[in-house]
Every structure is written in structure tokens, then in C-alpha cells.
TrEMBL record:
Protein name per its UniProtKB record: Core domain-containing protein
NCBIfam families: iron-sulfur cluster assembly accessory protein
GO molecular-function terms, A-Z: 2 iron, 2 sulfur cluster binding
Gene3D superfamilies: HesB-like domain
SUPFAM superfamilies reported for this sequence: HesB-like domain (SSF89360)
Gene Ontology biological process terms, A to Z: iron-sulfur cluster assembly
Gene Ontology CC annotation, any one: cytoplasm
InterPro entries associated with the record: ATAP, ATAP_core_dom, Fe-S_cluster_asmbl/transfer, HesB-like_dom_sf
UniProt source species: Halolactibacillus alkaliphilus
Family (UniProt): Belongs to the HesB/IscA family.
Superkingdom, taxonomy of origin: Bacteria
Positions of the Core domain: 2-98
Length: 109
């Protein structure tokens, strides 16, 4: 099951409130794979497609393509703040099985 840390939940809720659109959802997905590793997409989207899965996590609506569900089922979304700014980080234990090299964590801006 997809996990979202409390920091990431707070950040996403703040960002959704600023959007002022009740139909907007967080779209989370996978792009890439194999030796390049997994890359992730994280953003807002109003569209819902027939191949999408809608999941409500702590009142945050997430849209995930059904083809990505298996790769994201153990992923964790975190938000990290530092002196330069902040960003979302994705930790996915399944990514190591998909990668030839690199780490299991990726920063998403």
C-alpha cells in the first residue's frame, strides 16, 4: 500500500488548498524503468482516464494509472525541507529490483 509521510501529507494538503479547485487530484506515476531505474511523476491533474485508479489517502485524492499500481504499492512519498528549499522524495523498495545501478530513493520536484 502506498504510504505518505505526515510531512508530505501536510505539504500536499497546503498545495491542494492553494489550487482552489475541488476537482483536482494528485497524480502519481512511474516513467522509465530497466537499467535507467524508475523515475516518478508527481503533480496535480483534473483529468481522470479509464485506466486510472482513484485512491483517497488521509483525505488527499490520488490518481494512479492502473499499470503503475504494482510498482508503487510499497512506495513512500516524503517531503524534505533544507536551506535551499524543499522537495518530494520517493522511496521504493521495489525500485532496487528494477535498477541495474543507483539508489532506491529519488527526489521529485
Amino acid at each position: 500500500m502506498l504510504l505518505i509521510t505526515d510531512r508530505a501529507k501536510r505539504q500536499l494538503k497546503e498545495m491542494l488548498q492553494r489550487e482552489k479547485n475541488n476537482n483536482i487530484r494528485v497524480r502519481f506515476g512511474v516513467k522509465g524503468g530497466l537499467c535507467n531505474g524508475l523515475s516518478y511523476t508527481l503533480g496535480f491533474d483534473k483529468q481522470m482516464y479509464k485506466e486510472d485508479h482513484l485512491e483517497l489517502i488521509d483525505s488527499i485524492p490520488f490518481t494512479i494509472n492502473k499499470n503503475d499500481l504494482e510498482l508503487l504499492k510499497y512506495a513512500t512519498i516524503d517531503f524534505k525541507q533544507d536551506m535551499v528549499g524543499g522537495g518530494f522524495h520517493i522511496y521504493n523498495p521495489l525500485a532496487e529490483k528494477e535498477r541495474c545501478c543507483g539508489s532506491k530513493e529519488e527526489e521529485v520536484h
